[in-house]
Specification:
InterPro entries: AAA+_ATPase, P-loop_NTPase, Signal_recog_particl_SRP54_hlx, SR_rcpt_FtsY, SRP/SRP_N, SRP54_GTPase_dom, SRP54_N_sf. It is found in: Cell membrane; Cytoplasm. The chain is an alpha/beta fold. It folds into two domains: 46-127, SRP54, nucleotide-binding domain (Four Helix Bundle (Hemerythrin (Met), subunit A)), CATH 1.20.120.140; 135-330, 3-Layer(aba) Sandwich (Rossmann fold). It contains twelve helices and eleven strands. It has helices spanning 39-52, 54-61, 71-83, 88-105, 110-125, 152-165, 180-192, 205-218, 236-252, 270-283, 301-308, 330-337; strands at residues 5-6, 17-19, 132-134, 140-146, 170-174, 196-198, 223-227, 259-265, 287-291, 313-317, 325-327. Strands 6-5-7-4-8-9-10-11 form an eight-stranded mixed beta sheet, sandwiched between helices. A three-stranded antiparallel beta sheet has the order 1-2-3, with no helix packed on it. Residues 1-17 and 19-37 have low confidence and may be disordered.
Length: 339
């Protein structure tokens, strides 16, 4: 589950909130956050994460079933990491780091080397672990992009539920105006979460986004979530539409969008890294949501992202249920991967 931690705003004490991973600190607060017991739900999440990453991690973990640490082990590990779409740069980095850890610890047991690899992966991914802060701006405007089929609209629905459950008021903007199914899907999520939605059939996506931000300000909403049309980064005219949405949102609120998130499908492996690079060039991404890690053997792409395009990962998903989207924790991920 998500925990919200409050901090004082510059003018009157409206309570901003942060949405941190369990293992990270919340934004600075003048008073301690109320104690919240997350052990049970987080334990349930970790079990799902381990099960979800089994396809990716099994090939890596089997490398350490031998009896000695030698060149053959490292060669097998290199192959396993590449097969998991960790990428050449991240694989080289992890192997060099692991060999140093083995030498420094004087480890002779291959099973112990697996633990050292988990440490190396956790350290590589640590810079990607960052809390999503809600409340420094009112509304906090979050623009969400992604290719068709990545799970973008579903992720927005799940995020909306988490925000609403913790007391944040949310307004949805259906800026995928030309695809009726997208508007209908977002409307269903709005209805399930009992939040308002700004929608317009066949209208200008930028205009809908502008109206939503303006409405969010007027109605005092905490968050405005803008769902944009799915597209490939090679569709240049559609990428320009995303830039236009961002520009027009800034006309409604000069400080917005406060977050620009990209939803990527873990099944796409190295292609996911290319998407991160392309969308970041177009929009200056602030965070990622990585979905469908339970259906892929290519979850190592997170390591490739960390090495080549370290955009923070706010959430990861390992299933279709509401609770199957959770905050990203680098050490949890590394340990679950090699469990």
């Amino acid at each position: 589950m998500f925990s919200f931690f409050r901090k004082k705003a510059p003018t009157p004490p409206s309570p901003p909130a942060a949405l941190p991973p369990a293992a990270t600190q919340a934004a600075q607060s003048p008073a301690p956050a109320p104690a919240v017991s997350e052990a049970a739900p987080r334990k349930g999440w970790l079990d799902k994460l381990k099960a979800g990453l089994r396809k990716t991690g099994s090939g890596i973990a089997t490398v350490f079933t031998g009896t000695q640490i030698d060149d053959a082990l490292y060669e097998e590990l290199e192959t396993a990491l590449l097969m998991a779409d960790t990428g050449v740069k991240a694989t080289e980095h992890l192997l060099a780091d692991l060999k140093k850890r083995v030498k420094d610890s004087k480890t002779t047991d291959p099973a112990a080397v697996k633990g050292l690899l988990a440490d190396a992966i956790a350290d590589l991914l640590a810079p990607l672990q960052k809390p999503l802060v809600i409340g420094e701006h009112k509304p906090t405007v979050i623009m969400v992009a992604g290719v068709n089929g990545a799970g973008k609209t579903t992720s927005i629905g799940k995020l909306t539920r988490h925000l609403a459950n913790e007391g944040a008021t949310v307004l949805l903007a259906a800026a995928d105006t030309f695809r009726a199914a997208a508007r209908e899907q977002l409307a269903i999520w709005a209805d399930r979460n009992t939040v308002e939605i700004i929608t317009q059939q066949g209208g200008d996506p930028a205009a809908v986004s502008f109206d939503a931000v303006t409405a969010g300000k007027a109605r005092g909403r905490d968050v405005v979530l803008v769902d944009t049309a799915g597209r490939l980064p090679t569709q240049l005219h559609l990428m320009e539409e995303l830039r236009k949405i961002k520009r027009v949102v800034q006309k409604a609120d000069a400080t917005a969008p406060h977050e620009v998130l990209l939803v990527i499908d873990g099944n796409t492996g190295q292609n996911a890294l290319m998407q991160v690079k392309a969308f970041d060039d177009a929009l200056a991404l602030t965070g990622l949501i990585i979905t469908k890690l339970d259906g892929t053997a290519k979850g190592g792409v997170i390591c490739a992202i960390a090495r080549e395009k370290p955009v923070p990962i706010y959430f990861i998903g390992v299933g279709e249920k509401l609770e199957d989207l959770e905050t990203f924790d680098a050490r949890e991920f590394a340990q679950a991967l090699l469990a």
